[in-house]
Amino acid sequence: MQSPVYKRIVLKVSGESLSGNNGYGIESSVISSIAEQVKEVVELNVEVAIVVGGGNIWRGIAGSAKGIDRATADYMGMLATVMNSLALQDALEQIDVPTRVQTSIAMQQIAEPYIRRRAIRHLEKGRVVIFAAGTGNPYFSTDTTAALRAAEIEAEVILMAKNKVDGVYSADPFKDASAEKFETLTYLEVLNRNLGVMDSTASSLCMDNDIPLVVFSITEAGNIKRVVLGEKIGTIVMKGSAS
């Protein structure tokens, strides 16, 4: 049996990936598939924390563009991530994976408040921890949340699960047939080439704290386990000097 190359990970799941082909809302078969993939990793004794986006329900930037105050729109987006987190928690617990949701905005009736030491203790006990409501502050994305929480809990890697692409490309592969897929990149290259892997705040935070990032497709069953076992799929982004 192969041994995992990481002991503690942060899995970043986009809100759009939960909607499947619908483009909106939560597709039960998709969220069940993600839960099964997470269970495979937990069974390897890997500590798993998850950050879920909210783009399948609400996007703060899109709301702001429609005339809603930006801070208000971002808070609405944070609430969307809570809905997704609760759905994912339910899917995990239905297959006997103990899970805790921690929110950056206090809502005691449905989830724990985010407390770093408590989150780490949950992980040490084999529980999956889902970080919801972003950082609790407007103007910050859930990518930044993933980078921040990974630094706080001393995760060894961030796994960025995508539902449409299987890595990082030089251009949009759906629009440009000559788009090149990268096997490895540095954070400086991502920033300098404006590749859009993460927003610049998240990329800088990962670079400053030397947290590697693996971008891969979540649509193929078993891919999370493959990454954790060290298989070379997707694109690895690391700290380093731009070439």
From TrEMBL:
Domain Aspartate/glutamate/uridylate kinase: 7-217
Annotated stretches, region: Involved in allosteric activation by GTP: 20-25
Catalytic activity: UMP + ATP = UDP + ADP
Residues that bind UMP: G54, D74, T135, G136, N137, P138, Y139, F140, S141, T142
EC number: 2.7.4.22
Involved pathway(s): Pyrimidine metabolism; CTP biosynthesis via de novo pathway; UDP from UMP (UMPK route): step 1/1
A GO MF term: UMP kinase activity
Residues annotated for ATP binding in this entry: K12, V13, S14, G15, G55, R59, N163, Y169, D172
Keyword terms, alphabetized: Allosteric enzyme, ATP-binding, Cytoplasm, Kinase, Nucleotide-binding, Pyrimidine biosynthesis, Transferase
Subcellular localization(s) per the UniProt record: Cytoplasm
Record text on activity regulation: Allosterically activated by GTP. Inhibited by UTP.
Pfam families, A to Z: AA_kinase
HAMAP family in the cross-refs: PyrH_B
NCBIfam families per record: pyrH_bact
Described purpose of this protein according to its UniProt entry: Catalyzes the reversible phosphorylation of UMP to UDP.
Subunit (UniProt): Homohexamer.
Family: Belongs to the UMP kinase family.
The name this protein goes by in its record: Uridylate kinase
Gene: pyrH
